């Protein structure tokens, strides 16, 4: 079972990468020394609540998100992908993995929407919730 510092660190690293941010860039945004981010992401150091609050603002996520160990959910998703891809031929596996890699690259470049932000449907002015 991971320590709380490791759980928090995993979230910080994932959010930082999802936002295509360097460790130095994140450090600047939250007002800490850049040398603090690496050990923080590895779970070797623990952030203060004030730092977690700034992280939640930078990444537009609630503070409690950093305390949830979602590794079990990640493992289930990985097992599902493994089952889907593993049953295919070598050529199909290669194609699927390359496709997945490209999709992840696109997701990393896409700006994240803030919670509750809605997009207006062009033409009629009605709000359309993001699903």
Overview of this structure, please?
It is a single chain. A two-stranded antiparallel ribbon has the order 1-2. A hairpin with a 6-residue loop joins strand 1 and strand 2. It contains 6 helices and 2 strands, in the order ααααααββ. The longest helix is centred in the C-terminal third of the chain and has 20 residues. It has 2 domains: 64 residues, 434 Repressor (Amino-terminal Domain), CATH 1.10.260; 39 residues, no CATH class. With 131 residues, the chain is mainly alpha-helical.
Share in helix: 55-70%
| H/E topology pattern | HHHHHHEE
Give me the number of helical elements.
Answer: 6
- The quaternary state of the protein chains shown equals single chain
Low-pLDDT residue spans: 118-131
Q: Please report which band the strand proportion falls in: under 5%, 5-15%, 15-25%, 25-35%, 35-45% or over 45%.
A: under 5%
CATH class of the largest domain: Mainly Alpha
The count of domains is 2
Largest sheet: 2 strands, antiparallel
Shape: elongated
Summarize the structure.
About 55% of the residues lie in helices and about 5% in strands.
């Amino acid at each position: 079972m991971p320590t709380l510092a490791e759980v928090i660190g995993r979230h910080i690293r994932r959010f930082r990468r999802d936002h295509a941010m360097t460790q130095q860039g994140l450090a600047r945004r939250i007002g800490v020394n850049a040398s603090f981010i690496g050990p923080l992401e590895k779970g070797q150091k623990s952030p203060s609540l004030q730092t977690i609050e700034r992280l939640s603002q930078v990444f537009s996520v609630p503070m409690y998100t950093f305390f949830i160990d979602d590794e079990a959910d990640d493992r289930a998703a990985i097992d599902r992908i493994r089952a889907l891809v593993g049953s295919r031929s070598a050529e199909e596996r290669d194609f699927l993995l390359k496709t997945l890699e490209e999709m992840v690259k696109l997701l990393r470049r896409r700006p994240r929407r803030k919670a509750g932000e809605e997009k207006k449907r062009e033409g009629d002015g009605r709000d359309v919730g993001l699903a």
